[in-house]
Amino acid sequence: MSIKQEWAHFKTIWGQGSDLILLRLRMLRLDANEQLAVIIKIFSAVVVMAVLSLIGLMAMLLGLNVVLPDIWKIRVFFSVAALTLLICFGLMLWIPIIWKHSSGQISETLGALQNDIRALRGEKPLNISKD
Question: Which residues cross the membrane (predicted)?
Fold first, then answer.
C-alpha cells in the first residue's frame, strides 16, 4: 500500500471508529438515564414502604389495643396490618430485581464499547456473556 492509500484507510477507520464510539457513548447515556429512573423508582418504593410500614404498625397497635366485643374491628385492623406488611415485603423483593436489570444494561453497553475499541485496534473482541 502506498502512503496515500494508507492515509485514506486510516481516515476511513478513524471516521467509522469515532462514529461508532460516539454511538456507544450515546447508548451509555441512555442507559445511565434509565439507571437514574430506576434509582427514583427504588427511592419512591422505599418511601411507600416506610409509609405502609407505619400504617401497618399503627393498625396492629390499634388492633391489639381494641378490646371490644365487636370482633370485626379487630379483624379489620389486623387484616390492614397484614396487607400493608405484605406489600412492604413485595417491594423489598422488587428492588433488587429492577436494580440488577438496570445494571446489566449498562455493563452490556460498556462491554460492547470495549469490544468496539478492541476491533478498531485490530484485536480479537472479548466474549461477553450475559448473566
Answer: 36-64, 76-99
* Closest residue by Cα to residue 110 from 35, 46, 5, 7: 35
| pLDDT 10s digits, 65-86 | 766 666 777 777 788 788 888 9
Phi first, then psi, for residue 123 (nearest 5°) are -95, 165
Q: Quote the number of domains for the chain.
A: 1
Query: How many Å apart are CA 6 and CA 100, to the nearest integer?
Result: 45
Residue-number span of the structural domain to which 78 is assigned:
24-102
String of DSSP letters for 107-120 = HHHHHHHHHHHHHH
77 within a domain of the structure (yes/no): yes
- Which of 38, 45, 41, 47 minimizes the C-alpha distance to 100? 38
Q: How far apart are CA 10 and CA 120, in angstroms?
A: 11
Q: Give me the sign of the Cα torsion angle 9, 15, 16, 21.
A: positive
